[in-house]
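Deviation from plan, reported transparently: adenosine-5'-diphosphate complex.
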Amino acid sequence: MSFAKVAVPVPLGQAFSYSIPDELSAELVPGSRVLVELGRRRVLGVVLAVVEGEPDVEAAKLKSVLAVVDREPVLSEELLSFLIELGRYYLAPLGEVMRLALPQVERSAKHRLEQQGLAGVEALESVGRLVRFAVPVEPPPGGAPPRGQAQEILDQLRSAGACEVSSLAKRWSSARGSVKRLEALGFVRLESRSQSIDPFFAEPVEKDVAPELTDAQRAALDAILAAVDGRQPAAFLLDGVTGSGKTEVYLRAVEHAVRSGSGAIILVPEIALTPQLVARFRARLGDAIAVLHSGLTDLERHAMWRSLRDGQVQIAIGARSALFAPVARLGLICVDEEHDGSFKQEEGVRYNARDMALLRAHRASAVCVLGSATPSLGSEALVRERRLGRLVLPGRARQSAELPKVELVDLRRIGPGPGGHKLISLPLYRAIEATLAAGQQTILFLNRRGFAPTVLCEACGATMQCPNCAVALTLHRRGRPTLRCHYCDYACALPEVCPSCSAQKLSEEGAGTERIEGTLAELFPTARVARLDRDVAGGHKSARILDRMRSHEIDVLVGTQMVTKGHDLPQVTLVGVLNADAALSLPDFRAAERVFQLLVQVAGRAGRGDSPGQVLIQTYQPEHAAIALAANHDVRSFVDRELAARRELNYPPFARIALVRVEAVDERIAEAAAERLADIARRAVPKGAEVVGPAAAPLARLRGRFRYRFMVRSKERGPLRTALLAVLRSPPDRRVRLTVDVDPMSML
Ligand code: ADP
Ligand code: ZN
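Because the crystal trials were delayed, the predicted structure below was used instead.
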């Protein structure tokens, strides 16, 4: 007999076996979505494999597949096998992994299931408006031929295929009546299908003229194109300074891949996915691009999914989840700003889209291009192992644009400027003044000290902490001053006096962007000052602020991490980094790498146009390698140094690590569970691997739960897996939440 292995959306690792009724055996193939019974519930599952032989369950207990949901399999072989591999890599439940790539159920599919009388189907969420389609069918023998308009409509249907009744009605005044008659005579079948919509509503974008490539761009592109044409898996690191024209290389590579019949995916960091970026792709590649972003409605998302799956659209662009786009005949994946932390998903299946882009491309015999001005140390290590080919763009693409001059301002020696604000030093004040006088623009970057601007009592030194989470509360000044926790959303009014010592000396520590914006407005009353951070700007708002910046309706833009990402703003000549070292002290072995990348990226926003740029970095630690080397744009030396340190401390990329996190409301329960699991891991772990901890996490309490964790570390992946599987096989009871994070990006 044959049976189906089905992944169902439950927090269990393995797949379940179901028997296959004869009438479904033709449609049921790997990648099909099916309706199955799980306990007493009906759930959607994905067929992983159809297996010949005896199932691992007694025949009497074996349930059968109830229905095949979609007309065609929802996952291609390529995508399905990639997802299975991804699930193995992260030790994640297969049902959850499948969900990363599954489209919503089409309303028409749900309709079909309902007509089969399947109970419980009503509860399925579905998408799409049902539209009546007229489908031509073979008429019964001996029927009288239709006449008049009905005949014309039938001819049309027979030559062009099924058609929406409403669009027939636009051409033939009595189409609805005629179609009814045709149905009654048996020439036509009426069917409800879900309507797909045109995903591109935005204003048209003018075609751009491709610039003449620089020699370096040409050489890089040639290497990529040769690999695309070779249809062999290949991977490159496009190592190009900020403004070196990496995007231009992606554009050409994608254009070439699509012309030769392949599909392409472009992954960008969350924050970089702006209308400007998309406009650049549309201007070159036309409108047949699926832009996948969180603002899409279900209907839009589904329409894009369909057009990609059917091959009508060959290009998908988006943040990390676009990695799962059902692009047909995948030939190329580009990951822009590959070092960016937002490629890591920090909930559910904790995958890293940058790492998995390499995997998907490899398995699909496609080419993967990772681009960055500050490559991750992981990529650097892969280059040294010759698993990535390095393509270098050493200078800025535009002749006139030079890398900006960087100066360090030592805050230990240099005090506040005229505004009295310690983060607007005298040199910075003068530089802003000069830039304004020259009619040019400034970006000021405030490095959020891990967790945002906080309130401190100057008398006793107490900081205002969230009662639920072991983090400082963030001060918000809009309206009535409030303290807010950015983890659990706890909020309270800013107290008048310190809750610990009752002194009236509460003041803001590491002033936030709001306060800097206010100070600047006082210092430069005629300047147009704006601010960009997560508080003012979700998706569309941030795009609008950047638009105003581009059209020079803003003179000075103050912001957090959001101002550092890939924006191409040619009139910005001054970049000020207000507090370079704020994130250096985070308890995370990547702290220096992150600070370095951030500084180089933010400095790269200056002088991209025709006027030279200037960068001022304010710091209390000007001699720190991450700061001193960033000031010299010296990526190579930083990488060498940092790699040596990682090797010595046995951290990635020289070791593989996983974090096992344990959380519970009761601290002792969390601690005990962590100890028990660490013990299990220790006993299971083969030679060559080690278990470090358990210990309380640096963020020791989050959303009212105590957090403990331990690290498993090993040179190779095998021993790591063995230890983690042992942990997952003896899960703690329900009071404890357990997560396993393979290749963690955050150590907090
Ligand atoms: P990156 O992605 O490396 O930061 P971009 O692709 O955004 O760089 O290019 C920076 C600027 O240089 C853009 O304004 C772009 O239009 C321009 N540019 C790119 N390639 C060329 C070229 N070959 N000649 C002239 N200008 C170019
Ligand atoms: Zn909190």
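The chain has 20 helices and 32 strands. We consider this an acceptable substitute for the interim report.
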